[in-house]
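dumping this here so i dont lose it
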């Protein structure tokens, strides 16, 4: 078995908190936590991640030497090892109400997807439906179209479908997702345009976060919520405050208004809008705090 060691950064980083988030969001069939080990596909390979002696240890079977550098780089990105949040923590510590939300999550890594395509497709699935329905839809997508699959401790994880795989899909094949025909068509259209080279999604990595959002919003069917969360999910940057996210509204109502009043976009703007460039990240941390406190760990790959 091959092994890669990724040194822990000098800034605050807590792999255990990342595992707790993954246990709760139960990203369907994509990641699996067993004890203190995270299983997931990276660069097309099923890998096991755990913390040991000041490093994140990555293990996989039959990895070629030529693969190791790419796996190390992509693992650092997806596990948030390359994202220093010290400036955000310093900012949050100056505001008592925000710090009370953020401090328990100090060191929580910002987990990222492997690609912008993955981030965007998962968010299209999540548009205008409940979180549980979105999880079921994403699970159906993974099981039906992913080529790579691996059984870890009795549960199956899958690699994310490629643009080529989804470009070849028909609307009828996406019926199992139980989302609207419009969103099924959008997923197929995105995949076909990426596969044909007409839509260079991954190129937005070269842009700053605000410009990346603006670029994504040029795509029909992609609004501010989808674009802002796509940049966050792909790169760990949150340039927009997702004020219309109902879960964030509930979190803000609980943490900043002691549960009083009617949750609303206005409430989110009032509580977090003054944090400027950090408003989106503050909202993301409030939402993750809500997830940790309100949702029990999920059984992986359950319906």
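and the seq i came up w/
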């Amino acid at each position: 078995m091959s092994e890669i060691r990724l040194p822990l950064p000098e800034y605050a980083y807590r792999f255990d908190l990342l595992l707790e988030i993954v246990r709760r969001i139960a990203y369907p069939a994509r990641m699996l936590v067993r004890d203190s080990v995270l299983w997931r596909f990276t660069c097309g390979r099923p890998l096991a991640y755990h913390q040991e002696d000041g490093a994140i240890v990555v293990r996989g079977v039959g990895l070629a030497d030529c693969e190791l550098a790419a796996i190390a780089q992509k693992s650092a990105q997806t596990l948030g090892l390359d994202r220093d949040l010290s400036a955000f923590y310093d900012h949050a510590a100056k505001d008592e109400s925000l710090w009370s939300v953020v401090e328990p999550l100090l060191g929580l890594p910002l987990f990222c997807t492997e690609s912008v395509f993955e981030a965007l497709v998962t968010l299209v699935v999540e548009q205008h439906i409940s979180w549980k329905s979105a999880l079921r839809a994403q699970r159906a997508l993974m099981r039906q179209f992913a080529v790579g699959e691996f059984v870890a401790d009795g549960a199956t994880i899958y690699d994310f479908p490629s643009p080529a795989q989804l470009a070849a899909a028909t609307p009828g094949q996406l019926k199992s997702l139980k989302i609207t025909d419009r969103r099924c068509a959008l997923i197929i259209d995105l995949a076909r345009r990426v596969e044909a080279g007409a839509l260079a999604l991954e190129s937005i990595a070269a842009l700053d976060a605000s410009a990346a959002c603006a670029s994504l919003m040029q795509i029909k069917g992609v609004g501010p919520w989808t674009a802002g969360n796509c940049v966050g999910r792909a790169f760990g940057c949150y340039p927009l405050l997702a004020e219309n996210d109902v879960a964030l509204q509930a979190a803000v109502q609980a943490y900043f208004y002691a549960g009083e009043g009617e949750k609303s976009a206005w409430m989110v703007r009032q509580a977090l809008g003054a944090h400027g460039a950090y408003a989106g990240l503050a909202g993301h941390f409030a939402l993750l705090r809500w997830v940790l406190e309100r949702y029990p760990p999920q059984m992986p790959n359950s319906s």
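The CA atoms of residues 51 and 195 lie 37 Å apart.
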